[in-house]
Design goal:
The structure is a homohexamer. Chain A is an alpha/beta fold. Helices cover 34% and strands 24% of the residues of chain A. The first copy, chain A, is built from 10 helices and 14 strands.
Chain lengths: 332, 332, 332, 332, 332, 332
């Protein structure tokens, strides 16, 4: 079965990053990227041949237009990108290096999406041709209206028997673990595919310990919320320049782990979204659980080597790495 | 008498400009400048030996710190730059060229200053050593609290017998001409030195026509508000790349005009503020009215040739141009 | 009647330009743009709300993909952009300055389009929903196969009663005036809307003198080829940094001239294509001949101020300049 | 007790670095930084809340002014930065990579400070409010006048009971080990806090071997010169891209070692100065010896990750790394 | 004996590389380098004091002129660089990172050299003062004429008793292993010094396995073709950012191995050519086999740290690394 | 007669220029160019087919090597570029704009050439194959040794009957008009071709007024010093962005004037040297006086449009402009 239309709903922002390894206090210019968890997923899926459509709201000005153009460039359908509202959220990101952590300064309040109402989104129409709805735990944190909108989207998807995936993606700048836990607890029973990590599962739901094994986290999520599929990422490493990335997937009865990638990091932001997109890709293309988790981990690995938030690589490149072939080699 | 401390109160924002002549839709990076009408005045004055102190509020994050550092670099006192509040206002500016007008996209709502309360500013302390208070018509447009704060600042300055200058600087993105006219009409009777242009005087106060002679505007402002000193700028030219800039000053009994500068424009933003700073410089240094208006016009002219909002040139450079010497010539 | 789908057929190349005013011999890097006469038209039309579709062939490699993505970004339909063949044409362009002329070094031979066969293009399918076909005199110069393909496209358009426009656009690097004249003479009787200048009309067809009046050229073209509509551009100026641009349009019984724009040039390349797109826009939107020629001339004028080949401005911006309002002025 | 004013005396130069990893022979542009051992210390201290004042001399031209502005930006007091003399020293630095060592080309002779006289510096006035004087072994190498000036500064500091710290910082481009050893031997008995490494201690004073243990070096320096506090840095690693950095501090009766940081290097220059500033910070803030050496080593570690010579990070960032928390992790 | 004139024959192209780690699809500009296997050798030799002369053909346009100027800059004799023909070959190279392999897109067909005839090269004149001819296995793949030209060059060199070196350098984009094996089998009996790796020796000649020991490959080549000297490079590593590089040289009766360099890679392209140049340098300067292989491996190692294709470092720098001294250390 | 070897003697420096129109106080990086009056002449001549050789001294370090490589790139013979001495002179140049004059900060004292001795230059050997010696009035100002060296060079040239040209090029940063006048008065009787302007002739020699006609200056120079050929440049214009450039040449009995070029300036520095090179080119190629002055003025005009100090254009481009053809037009 060919992959079907995947609808991604969430906020996209303007990401401003000082060139090279400069700190914000040293910057006289910023690289400009568009970035947002669900948009990153939409872009990766479209690049890999899974049709995707973005649902969001951006201001009706040249910055908003540039964002929409960038989605079009990336083959994402923009029919349901609403125009209007006050502003596009902005965030500043310093690239990290060695012991210096990445630093993020958010300026996202009062964005066009955060100030939108639930009534602006007609989910029946939006999901008309969709077989999949992707969400993240960021959107319900934006405003009560968005919390309600996410719930409406889930209910509409359920009615249509579309698969629902959610990346927990807890953002402590937006809400407390308690509020997040309570809100997401209401949504997760509708979710088919959950992606998170041990730390967030422990912090929001008290499931597993952040020190416990990942399998404990997976089982806990499944027991509590009944998710059909759970994927967990693990990262290790003392340095911002190097990381070890791996993942665990529970799908049906199988628990499978990906290989661990030792990565020299160019740009870490968006790698979790590349992983999430990889899981959706695998499920939609009916890869085996092992193939799926390898594909998703390889996508996350490659994203670390690409500037910006988007996972600008082809399915062929991801598959080659997932198969363990030709890593990093020049062939000419 | 040596020039005394000049206190400037207003908002400073992050200005993002695409490199070269790129449009926002083409930009993959932005030059970053800090910019704001009253801050521009403070920077120019400090560069010219008039001690200046900035009063504003910026968020307590690396972007706010970078702004404060930039003011320190420019010799502006930052004792009264408050830290806190939600965000720094942002605006995007496309450089203009020929028939293509400059384009400005504002994202300034909910800034730290706009959300500050009047009670945060202790004007008695702020003005303790000041002989001059500079304001613009932008600040009262930010919020009712800021409208009240400007009024309090004026009253405190009057009590201390400090001179008050105000650049009308109408911003239609912030309020209607009616609201602006009403608000400023309450403030201008306290103002000693008013800077504006014919268009704004006509639009806000119905004084002069935007087609009438500048002298009419000057007399009208003086008659209505009793300002001791009025300065009017005039710009002409069909192209964004070239402009003719001149000015008229009424001071005491004298009406004097500057020469007209035919300018090839590098960066127009901030030229009005350079003019305003030039008027304050002339008055504080007790130049003659003719010298003052020539100095101010020359400062505005030079600002057009300097990237960014700040008038990064010395008093000696301004004076040389004001005297008509060595315009544009290389001497070595 | 709403504007209908316009199909543009021709070659798009990679344009490499040294940064700033550097010469090729000084360049250590190049700005990269995608550029081609008919593609530029397609992009401008799409930006202005006239649906457009590009027909071309690009290599199946990352450079070809980047081109297609750029068209998508610009809202151009890419359904009929074929992938395959040996290479994308490249050309190097030095920006001109003052007395220094722009310098163009072509490296376009053996491109994927030049080596394509006529059989690869199924014009019945391509034009299925189209009401307009746009061509230029460059494409038949690429190869005999392309000469035949253009003729087939014209015949298919005629059958469908689609309007055909052609920009003569003689390129002496590709063929001689004699060959060009002979080839285009075979095509022009099928063309409804012809765009050219006096120099090319004289050189290729012996119509008008390059010194004669533009009306003579227009009448000559109409008499010889029976074009319904003819548009002629005129440029004047000794310096590459400044040009005077105007145009003449003959439509039905009317001969109308645009105002002359005195332009300070940022990037001249693509301005003729912006003009051509403006004529098509006017005709499709049923503007009057005077409105059409003013719109087209204003579009060409604005293009001179925008880096790259694409006319990245909105119909609202073009209309404002065409109406003579607010040229180059900052309003905020 | 709050940290008191620290006076730093020495030369600041213009550092020119090719962009990226280019070599000087490939460079068509240079990144420009201001840099100097004692100035780097002053900047770090000011950033961490220890008031600092720079004593130096720069030419009275725009390059000198830019340097002073940069110090002001960094919160360093510039009251005692003299203007005049012939020139600012320049040095060219190639960034290193892997087996390719950093390359430094000095052009520092005849600088304004090197040609200044001892009489220009009124140490009584300069040290009026100071509790600490920081020097390096570079300044006495600049000229006999500077050698005398350093001695005068030390004597004035002793009179005022200000603490004196000295970073030995031997520069073989300026003088021989013999001359350096002789000169510094005259100064060190006045010095309270000495910072150096095994190699320099061995080369200049014959103390310890460059292969011996660091404790031997510390004891030797203390025995010979009676320094109250001695700090020693150690570096290891075959590659310019990666280094292991650690330190040993002897303070009172305690010998303490920092953890070893394995660093991926962005810009090594100035890391020793960040260490020195860290030692002064710890002593002025009455941290324990262990806390002090960890803070100083963490500061040096972070400096390796920041472009330029200045240690542009906050005390909070240094402390977090010194405590071993969150190294290189993104929290959001 | 002082090193004598080395003639290098082959194609030089324009290499376009996106800045930083951007992918081609993200690039809005390209760094421009001139690059080609034999030209890289010529540049390295000239930098190290071995006079070299380049034989090639470039188009007679500003891009071709820039290439020739770059060779002149690098001290390479350009007397035999012919001007004419259609174009300069172009290739696009994405810098690799971690698991992301470098990506190369060739656009080299129909270049001036590929379309040149054998008759254009008068080898008697070209080799008049030469003692060495260097070739690669790329040139015979360009066209039958170039295959013939390489054979003529070899025969002329043999007549003059000049040494012939050849870097096998198989390019699968140009020909099949079978065609390459057949063609080079005709040439190698004339070659004195052969440089290759195990993979190519196995693929083209069935000599050694790509998994076998390098000594097997060396012996096989010597047995089959009678080469006096054979050098083999070995690379290892899973990541594009780090590589282990070593080499084996068989010269006379000796088999010697270099140390292995663990390299953090800045730019890998051209490192094999730096190795080849190092072998020629060692032989011409009569270094011992061990010194030669260490010099060549050190040159290759340093090249990995230098942007562009040319090995821009001095013989002194290479020798210092070859001796194992001061790797990556800053001395000042 | 084919043009013969022209020997140019003088200092070449590193020119550092902030990018775009930034001021030195705003610069975080500098564009780097090599620049010097006589070197600029040598480069232009070599580009136009007049063999040239540079005589100068540069430090034996990577910066000096880069300078020599740049001369090689430009086809200038570097046999007589000595290596050694302390440093390369540096100067900072701000690009001018409109009323803002270019600003130059010199840091050229103690350069390798300024500290060289006359004995280092063996003029008999240097001039062995030369037919022309070119000098400027800058070199004798560098040091007494250089003043003597210039005199020795002139005497050697006279002995060899080589033509001597001198560009007066008064630099007030180096010496007073009185000292310059006295020194050059001793040299000019040996000079065959003198290039200057009215201002310098008046200031140094009291010849003509800076307001008088250029013919007066020419006659005065000829009468006083007996120069065979005198060329005078004239510049006009209030703005640094636009200038009118023309010239007068007296050669034999003829007084001829060039057309006046109205130039939009990209980079003014080096335009006088392009003019001087043009005069030498015309005389060596036996152009008529009118052709010579038109060529020289056209070369100066084109130099204004090219970044850097070198006149990077071909003789064909200069001739086309000198003939008044195709100024600034794109032909393709």
């Amino acid at each position: 079965m060919a992959p079907g239309l995947t609808v991604c709903f969430g906020e996209i922002m303007l990401r401003l990053t000082p060139p090279g390894c400069l700190r914000i206090g040293q910057a006289r210019s910023y690289e400009a990227w568009f970035a947002g968890s669900e948009g990153n997923v939409a872009v990766a899926l479209a690049a890999w041949g899974v049709p995707s459509s973005m649902v969001t709201k951006v201001p009706d000005n040249p910055v908003g237009e540039a964002l929409v153009a960038e989605l079009r460039r990336s083959k994402v359908d923009v029919t349901h990108v609403h125009k209007g509202g006050p502003r596009l959220g902005v965030f500043f990101v310093e690239k990290a290096a060695s012991q210096r952590a990445p630093r993020v300064v958010y300026d996202r309040a009062h964005s066009s999406l955060a100030e939108a109402s639930a009534a602006e989104f007609d989910w029946e129409a939006i999901l008309a041709n969709a077989c999949w709805l992707h969400l993240s735990g960021i959107t319900p944190a934006l405003s009560p209206a968005m919390e309600e909108t996410v719930a409406q989207a889930c209910r509409a998807a359920k009615l249509r028997q579309a698969t629902i995936s959610m990346d927990i993606n807890y953002r402590r700048a937006l809400w407390t673990p308690e509020r997040a836990g309570r809100s997401l607890t209401g949504l997760l029973p509708m979710v088919d595919v959950t992606i998170t990590n041990r730390e967030h599962a422990s912090l929001l739901f008290g499931i597993g310990g952040s020190d416990g094994g990942p399998a404990e986290t997976v089982r806990g999520l499944q027991a509590r919320f009944g998710c059909r599929t759970v994927a967990i990422t693990t990262r290790q490493g003392e340095s911002a320049s190097q990381t070890q990335f791996g993942a665990l997937l529970h799908q049906g009865d199988e628990y499978v782990s990906s290989r661990t990638h030792c990565i020299e990091v160019i740009d870490q932001v968006g790698s979790g979204d590349a992983f999430t997109a990889g899981i959706i890709y695998g499920l939609q293309n009916e890869l085996s659980p092992q193939e799926t988790v390898e594909y998703a981990a390889a996508a996350a690995c490659l994203k670390h080597t690409i500037p910006g938030d988007f996972c600008e690589c082809s399915a062929a490149e991801v598959r080659m790495l997932a198969l363990g072939e030709g890593s990093g080699r020049l062939v000419r």
